[in-house]
Amino acid sequence: xxxxxxxxxxxxxxxxxxxxxxxxxxxxxxxxxxxxxxxxxxxxxxxxxxxxxxxxxxxxxxxxxxxxxxxxxxxxxxxxxxxxxxxxxxxxxxxxxxxxxxxxxxxxxxxxxxxxxxxxxxxxxxxxxx
Amino acid sequence: xxxxxxxxxxxxxxxxxxxxxxxxxxxxxxxxxxxxxxxxxxxxxxxxxxxxxxxxxxxxxxxxxxxxxxxxxxxxxxxxxxxxxxxxxxxxxxxxxxxxxxxxxxxxxxxxxxxxxxxxxxxxxx
Lengths: 130, 126
What we know:
The complex is a heterodimer of chains A (130) and B (126).
Chain A: H1 2-24, H2 30-51, H3 60-82, H4 85-93, H5 95-106, H6 113-128
Chain B: H1 2-14, H2 20-42, H3 50-76, H4 79-101, H5 108-125
Helix pairs in contact in B: 3-4, 4-5
């Protein structure tokens, strides 16, 4: 049950965040918003790591994760500029399928009727809520 | 979309060997380097109002804390459950905040969308 609690907390925080970002990017360039976000987020997450007994081990390969994250967000913002939020937003949200499919194929995570139906309803909700 | 989906999957793969908060820290550190270079190359104007700065920093707090919880959840459970639940959950929250705070219109399509999202959550968690 405990991972569900972490997930609910994640959704609450990130849900409020997306609401604030939507308001903010109307006036400020998205990459400038990202800059200020990351300037706070980097030391904050380092603190969370240390407070929970973790260590700060510098691994250059892991920095590539950050480049990838920055690239995916920037590409999304470019798609918003060139397209519209009503189209780009749901397509972005469909990344849920990519990680799920990779989980099934590579990690052999269980796939049953309930999960398949859940993913189907997830995709339908993305389409309807755009 | 593909890149983001692959990144989430890579986090799942690495979370068995690395602390998820360390992964997130390195992700933000790498992202910060990337965005600094990008903003400098593009010569974006960095001065913003105090209100906008407050919102940007608040957003930084919310997204980093939210992602911290998310990465811990990814380590504990299958990514094929956590990732869709997170995406749909955020969409639901956006919709709820939209019509409670912004008084956005609720249409039949929106209601059906909410029902689909709730069904998605039910089927993925039973």
